[in-house]
Amino acid sequence: MILAPTSWCIPVDSGKFKWDFARYKGLEEYKRFGKFAYIAKLRNGIWRNVGCCVAPATSFLNSLGLETLGLRMDRLCSNALQLAEFLQGFEGITVNYPALKQSPYYDLVQSQFGGKGGGILTIDAGSKEKAFKLINNLKFATIATNIGDLRTLVIHPDSTIFTHGSKEQKENAGVFEGTIRVSVGIEDIEDLKEDFEQAIQKIDS
């Protein structure tokens, strides 16, 4: 274990420790990873679900960002709605966004959130292959698991953040092989529309 001066630590494991999985119950479900069981436990059982300690400098930047959060969220919600409405016009693309009129949550969004459906939407390209092709053809969007960034971020949930979930868990969460999660940024909406349009057009090319 290497301790750093900013109150966070980096675990180092050689994989040579002979864990008694019957004794250490918390590691039992990770024994399939062999000598990497401990690292897998940290990554999948702790960091993914709990998170790491936030460094002081990061906390300061988060607090600073709260001052303009309202302004950014207005732009994010506006862009997300316009992009969702735009993407509905493409054959083979299914859009899921709570502020769309056909969404079962539309009335709730109108009554409780002032018509703002948030900055995240999902689209389904129909298959994993098409989803990856769409993602890889985007020029402005960044492939990342983060949400709420100033930049538009995309991710394929089925093979990343939901990769350890069962088929039933994924389906209950609305995650399928063709699903792409889009965390819309504050870019010019016309640029975003153009980027997604050209990426969709290349799916079958």
What does this structure look like?
The protein is of the alpha+beta class and 205 residues long. The chain folds into two domains: 17-52, no CATH class; 68-201, Aspartate Aminotransferase, domain 1. Helix content is 38%, strand content 11%. The chain is built from seven helices and seven strands. The protein has helices spanning 37-47, 56-66, 69-87, 106-112, 128-137, 167-172, 189-201, and strands at residues 2-3, 9-10, 94-96, 120-124, 142-143, 153-155, 179-183. α3 (69-87) runs parallel beside α7 (189-201) and α5 (128-137) packs across α7.
| Series of H and E elements | EEHHHEHEHEEHEH
Strand order of the largest sheet: 3-4-7-6-5
Strand count, sense and barrel status of the largest sheet are: 5 strands, mixed
What is the CATH architecture annotation of the largest domain?
Alpha-Beta Complex
Give the helix/strand layout.
Layout: E1 2-3, E2 9-10, H1 37-47, H2 56-66, H3 69-87, E3 94-96, H4 106-112, E4 120-124, H5 128-137, E5 142-143, E6 153-155, H6 167-172, E7 179-183, H7 189-201
Parallel strand pairs: 5-6
Antiparallel strand pairs: 1-2, 3-4, 4-7, 6-7
Helix pairs in contact: 3-7, 5-7
